[in-house]
Amino acid sequence: MSSRIELRGVGQTFLVRGNDDRQLREFVALEGLDLDIAAGEFLTVVGPSGCGKSTVLDLIAGLAKPTSGSITIDGTPITGPGLDRSVVFQQYTLLPWRTAQANIEFALEAKGGLSKAQRQERARTYLELVGLTEFAGRYPHELSGGMKQRVAIARSLSYQPEVLLMDEPYGALDAQTRERLQEELVTIWQRTGTTVVFITHDIDEAVFLGQRVAVMSNRPGRIKAIVDIDLDRSGAGDRDVRATAEFAAYRHEVWTLLREEHAPGRPSPAHRKEDAHVA
Ligand SMILES: Nc1ncnc2c1ncn2[C@@H]1O[C@H](COP(=O)(O)OP(=O)(O)OP(=O)(O)O)[C@@H](O)[C@H]1O
């Protein structure tokens, strides 16, 4: 239940109005972006604000078409949204008039192909996976922010997508809830083998979650470097993986790459583009 995704020479140009003359002009958000995402991998994406992270995710989701280049999933061009891919956004997009369980069932109804009993069973299974069995009957306003996001994740996983696309899904959560959900997500990913692409501003989050961290350059966005992360996350709930020396070293590597983007004239000698694994 996983898919391989390839982006080749992807460019995205938007037409925007100039501040002064209000004339339409081209705005290059992405240019010549190459990226390979292996089947079943957990890839995190970091980059300066406005570098095009969400644009990349929208393109993979099929919510937009690139101006140039190609994007394929298992060799087939992506031409629009599909049930093989599911997106989780920062805002909890739950229906307020439906319970947690009914929100998931509703999404499965839209997908089709399952009887009512199967939908109910599937919704229960995924609520259990995110630890919300006891809250199945609650409405969104009766849930905490972290719980709502867990329902949104359970709903996305319930379609059993091959690819889970996550755009800053934990951005609005407090630090402790965020860490717990990161650990839960790693466990779910290990169990399901889904391909995950996860966008974040948070370097710790990117290092903790990703098997690889893709660092994007300033606009126009490209993949500047890929950092392979080899961390033992087993027992992450009991062991503070984030406090280990390995974690700190990876964190520093990603931080330095990002730092160069904020001060592009002064690359650090240890992390010049040619020293890193450039995708
Ligand atoms: N539909 C659009 N029309 C015009 N410009 C757009 C559109 N969508 C995105 N942009 C511009 O493209 C650039 C990349 O936007 P995007 O949201 O992908 O960046 P990002 O890296 O996700 O940003 P952030 O980290 O701040 O969320 C930004 O400068 C944004 O203003």
UniProtKB/TrEMBL annotation:
<protein>
    <submittedName>
        <fullName>ABC transporter ATP-binding protein</fullName>
    </submittedName>
</protein>
<dbReference type="GO" id="GO:0005524">
    <property type="term" value="F:ATP binding"/>
</dbReference>
<keyword id="KW-0547">Nucleotide-binding</keyword>
<feature type="domain" description="ABC transporter">
    <location>
        <begin position="5"/>
        <end position="243"/>
    </location>
</feature>
<dbReference type="Pfam" id="PF00005">
    <property type="entry name" value="ABC_tran"/>
</dbReference>
<dbReference type="InterPro" id="IPR017871">
    <property type="entry name" value="ABC_transporter-like_CS"/>
</dbReference>
<dbReference type="InterPro" id="IPR050166">
    <property type="entry name" value="ABC_transporter_ATP-bind"/>
</dbReference>
<keyword id="KW-0067">ATP-binding</keyword>
<dbReference type="InterPro" id="IPR027417">
    <property type="entry name" value="P-loop_NTPase"/>
</dbReference>
<dbReference type="GO" id="GO:0016887">
    <property type="term" value="F:ATP hydrolysis activity"/>
</dbReference>
<dbReference type="InterPro" id="IPR003593">
    <property type="entry name" value="AAA+_ATPase"/>
</dbReference>
<dbReference type="InterPro" id="IPR003439">
    <property type="entry name" value="ABC_transporter-like_ATP-bd"/>
</dbReference>
<keyword id="KW-0813">Transport</keyword>
